[in-house]
């Protein structure tokens, strides 16, 4: 089960190598500046689009199509959806004009047509009244009074028949007032007065049609009123057919989860003007009235399907991500600097480990410090050289030594990533040296090159070891430092407890100290003899004879000093044997305890690890190596031939 769960893990972390400060990426100051700039611009843009989103200033996506309505339905309308008024050339409306003239010029009537309940194939016409609109925007206009056909004066349900267009409709008929036909009490104007005062080109029959539209900013349905002019003629009767356009709207909105809202409303209309002869109108309406114009108002057969998609917050994130990705292009420059710096870091490692002789030469050339070898011992000088190379950042000094400006170095580094950096004849010696270092560094950080060298080292080590040694090496390892100290302290206390319980052990420790000193004296005498034999043959090893003589002289001086010290130590030992209560004797015993414990828990691997950390221990090991360098070991000769710091010049 555990294996199955592991195989389904989508968030596992890939393997990384760490570089400086336990980081997985090489960060640079220039990259930091680019990151701050990209982050600032990204944050500013993200804040901006969040402001637009919170204030609903991001336009939604609107898609709409039209289709033919193929179903019957009823819709609620307000009586203010259609209003009309007649304006005369002097700017007066019909009521004001007729009141001023004291005559009736036209008579507007209204009716509602619907299927007959008793016979659906027949149409029934119901007269309705025209009243002054109560809407303040339509104060001087006439509106329908729905009282005869609805329980409410200003609202009713109008139907639509998909088979017969106009089966449900409103109709406004404007009749010319004629005293010979109508009631004489109406005080109708004469034909001459009608033609002279009323029927003029500038007389406008105005219709106001109020529809609705969806405001994407307020997310509310709002009214939209338009004026429509109707043309009239004394010889012809105009018929204006107004077809309302129904809109079926779907609104999708939300923050993270979508919510849907539906609206159905009249959003627009189309109008068609038709002109008929008076005779045709008389036959159609079966009336003797002189009809000036007819206005028909109904639901059209076209429906608009509208979909409004408000952006979710994920849209804001996606838009931000697209801009952020564009800004990240500038990060490519910072990435180039990071790659260059990574190459320079490995070049630093190359100088400190592989090209150590060049590093030593740099230290001398730039005069970092001015200590001469003769001021102290050779081993101290070599120790100082090692730890200077190890602890100093050599690459800045190397760049100063080469005297190549930063732009030239960056150009070489960038070109090295894409092209083969072959040496050119016109390159200066400094540029060639820098290119060579970069090329060597790139080869070393190549995983192919690294893997090849590791495999070669593996084969070489196995060839140098016997089967028995290889098997024994599998058991070698380090102590954890804290655990090692704990074991040493416990064993030291155990030794002290045993001595307190058995005083006879003290004599054994005294004899051990004396034997130790005698062994050291014998080793010093042997080193003197080896030094004398080495001085006759050292010319084959070194080209500089003076350096070898100085080296041998320093070793002999060191050995003389050791002889004097050993003589003094021998006297101290004799005093310790005669006086067991002396404090130095107790200290010598304690040191012996510590040494035995140290020998028990210190292995060769621990000693090698201490060389890289402890400068004093490093110096002591160098001194021991110099003392035994006169041995005829080929490995020692090769090491001495490659060691830096024997030129006896000023230390850099």
Essential attributes:
3 domains; rod-shaped; 3-stranded antiparallel sheet; 652 residues; transmembrane; 13 strands; transmembrane helix; 8-stranded mixed sheet
> How many domains in all?
3
Tell how many strands the DSSP assignment holds.
Answer: 13
- Tally the helices: 21
Largest sheet: 8 strands, mixed
Please report which band the strand proportion falls in: under 5%, 5-15%, 15-25%, 25-35%, 35-45% or over 45%. Answer: 15-25%
Structural class: alpha+beta
Question: What overall form do the CA principal axes indicate?
Answer: rod-shaped
How much helical structure, as a percent, in the residues? 40-55%
Distance between the termini: 63 Å
Q: What value does the average pLDDT take?
A: 76
- Radius of gyration based on Cα positions: 54 Å
**Poorly predicted ranges:** 369-375, 530-552, 565-586, 648-652
Explain the overall architecture.
By secondary structure, the protein is of the alpha+beta class. The protein folds into three domains: 70-247 and 266-302, no CATH class; 329-445, no CATH class; 485-642, no CATH class. It is built from 21 helices and 13 strands. It has helices at 2-7, 29-54, 94-101, 191-198, 278-285, 313-327, 331-354, 356-366, 378-391, 394-402, 406-418, 429-444, 447-464, 467-473, 481-501, 504-535, 545-578, 583-601, 604-613, 615-627, 634-642, and strands at 61-68, 73-78, 82-87, 106-115, 123-132, 142-145, 155-160, 169-176, 204-215, 220-230, 236-253, 259-277, 291-309. Strands 1, 4, 5, 6, 8, 11, 12 and 13 form an eight-stranded mixed β-sheet that branches. Strands 3-9-10 form a three-stranded antiparallel β-sheet, with no helix packed on it. Helix 16 runs antiparallel to helix 17 (545-578) and helix 19 (604-613) crosses helix 20.
